[in-house]
């Protein structure tokens, strides 16, 4: 990592040599030295410019600095950078942050690229630029150039590859973030692009680390995926086996209610997640549209199942609801599984589709095998109950066999055992012998 940082600063110096007339600056260097941000405030009273240099090594997919706030919830002005589509340049994306969600591109923030921007030594991206209106951006949003401890935040994306020329590109949630305080008085001087000193032991100058967090992940998104896959790929298909093979209506109902609970929680999480990313805030992606339809079908399926069972208990006869319930259930499971394959690309993690395909294939083959074996077993058991096997071998209790028929003899009356009859009506089938 130190080698990468050395390459980073050397790349900057190849364009902007460090001399006595270099622009004044304050510099922040991340704890792992994989990201640096330097700022210069021109001392020209007629200027509202801010010069800056933003550099990062290849592993982070994107980096961002938030001016004027100690947290993302403080609505800072964000300077985000990521590799261009070609991979040989840097795309700068000035954005506005509104709470704890993905910052939104703001075309009114005027940022221009300056010489020294690009990829250096195939390891380090550098963006040198100037912003003409980054000192204030809303009624309350501003930086105080007279402050010796101006609050700022930073964030870095995961190692996933993000390349785009689009400044509105939606990105994955940060994997690490933090905050720092920067001395803007120290950064004030002759206007120009600030330079990061060329040293393996480079450290922050005029900036103090406040907070640092690493290993962050969007747990809501993870739970959403787990709950939905568990319900549509696991629990609901298992509920079919419980009814078809096990023949248990009660456990089938319990199973389906549990699956519905997971889908309900997953749907709520999905709604919350959608409001956190620019690519999903409009609820117009295939994954979201199919998801809404599936959730409506799930509620209808639950209601139809309840009505069918209630009517069947009263009449003990098949209902017209039954086939609708069966086929709607199959459609719900199919759409739910298909929608899983559209969810991972929306989360910018299309590689997980291969893992999902493996899980679905295994569950499908297991389901068909269990269903086939269960069907054959039920048929065998049914035939065995319908046929009585002939007695063979030694009879241990011969007295329990058929009694010999008594032959009638003269002078005796032999009758069948009496059966209940109406008064004055002889029993049916009575026999008399004289």
Structure notes:
This protein is of the alpha+beta class. It has 2 domains: 2-214, Cellobiose dehydrogenase, cytochrome domain (Immunoglobulin-like), CATH 2.60.40; 219-381. Helices cover 36% and strands 18% of the residues. The protein contains 6 helices and 14 strands. The chain has helices spanning 2-13, 219-244, 249-274, 286-315, 321-346, 352-386, and strands at 26-29, 35-42, 50-57, 63-67, 77-83, 90-96, 104-105, 111-113, 118-120, 124-131, 150-156, 176-182, 188-189, 207-214. The strands form 2 sheets. Strands 1, 2, 3, 8, 9, 10 and 13 form a 7-stranded mixed β-sheet that branches. Strands 7-6-5-4-11-12-14 form a 7-stranded antiparallel β-sheet, with no helix packed on it. A hairpin with a 5-residue loop joins strand 1 (26-29) and strand 2 (35-42). Helix 2 packs parallel to helix 6 (352-386) and helix 4 (286-315) packs antiparallel against helix 5. Mean pLDDT is 84; it is low at 1-21 and 391-400.
Keywords summarizing the entry:
disordered N terminus; alpha+beta; 434 residues; Immunoglobulin-like
